[in-house]
């Protein structure tokens, strides 16, 4: 995370194709009901932190992780669509609640074969849940990306 003039660089959480959040095949995300952000169709199941921060939320079903940075930005990383129904089976969480994490640190693994076998989408969605703090969000690049590469730049109001 680089903060300069109240801007934050958001990194890719996985490798492969990055897509705008409004293209996600789930209305809760595509309609930005939870906030703005981006999504990735991962080629591997390794999920990395997009920012430096603290793990604030670990869902019991292991399908989602919340991170908050020192400026107050809250990010939800949601692994797969409708994967809450899988009750944690295809996920391996590598962090604990309250743990400090660094950008590009491995935080979870998804078993993509298990997700596909249950006929679920493996799309990983990154959502900025406290939009009231944000002044602007850059466009999502198109095409392939590697974890740790910049996906978006956010400018905070303060």
From TrEMBL:
Matching entries from Pfam families are given as: PTS_EIIA_1
Annotated keywords: Kinase, Phosphotransferase system, Sugar transport, Transferase, Transport
Subcellular location field? Cell membrane; Cytoplasm
A GO molecular function annotation here is: kinase activity
Known InterPro entries for this protein? Dup_hybrid_motif, PTS_EIIA_1_perm, PTS_EIIA_component
In the bilayer, the protein is annotated as: Multi-pass membrane protein
Tell me which positions the record assigns to the signal sequence.
none
Top-level taxon in the UniProt lineage: Bacteria
What is one Gene Ontology biological process annotated in the Swiss-Prot or TrEMBL record? phosphoenolpyruvate-dependent sugar phosphotransferase system
Electron transport as a keyword of this entry, yes or no, is: no
In this chain the PTS EIIA type-1 domain maps to 26-130
Q: Which GO cellular component terms, listed alphabetically, does the Swiss-Prot or TrEMBL entry include?
A: cytoplasm; plasma membrane
Q: Which PANTHER family match?
A: PTS SYSTEM GLUCOSE-SPECIFIC EIIA COMPONENT (PTHR45008)
Annotated protein name in UniProt: PTS glucose transporter subunit IIABC
Organism (species)? Liquorilactobacillus nagelii
| Organism lineage string | Bacteria, Bacillati, Bacillota, Bacilli, Lactobacillales
């Amino acid at each position: 995370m680089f903060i300069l003039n109240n801007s934050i660089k958001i990194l890719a959480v996985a490798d492969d194709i990055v897509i705008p959040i409004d293209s996600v095949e789930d209305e809760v995300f595509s309609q930005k009901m939870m906030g703005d952000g981006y999504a990735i169709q991962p080629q591997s199941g390794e999920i990395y932190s997009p920012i430096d921060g603290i793990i604030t939320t670990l869902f019991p079903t292991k399908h989602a992780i919340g991170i908050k940075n020192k400026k107050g930005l809250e990010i939800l990383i949601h692994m797969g669509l409708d994967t809450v129904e899988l009750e944690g089976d295809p996920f391996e969480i590598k962090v604990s609640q309250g743990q400090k994490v660094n950008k590009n640190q491995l935080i979870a693994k998804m078993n993509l074969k298990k997700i596909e076998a249950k006929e679920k989408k493996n799309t990983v969605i990154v959502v900025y849940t406290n939009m009231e703090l944000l002044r602007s969000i850059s466009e999502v690049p198109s095409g392939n990306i590697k974890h740790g590469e910049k996906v978006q730049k956010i400018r905070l109001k303060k």
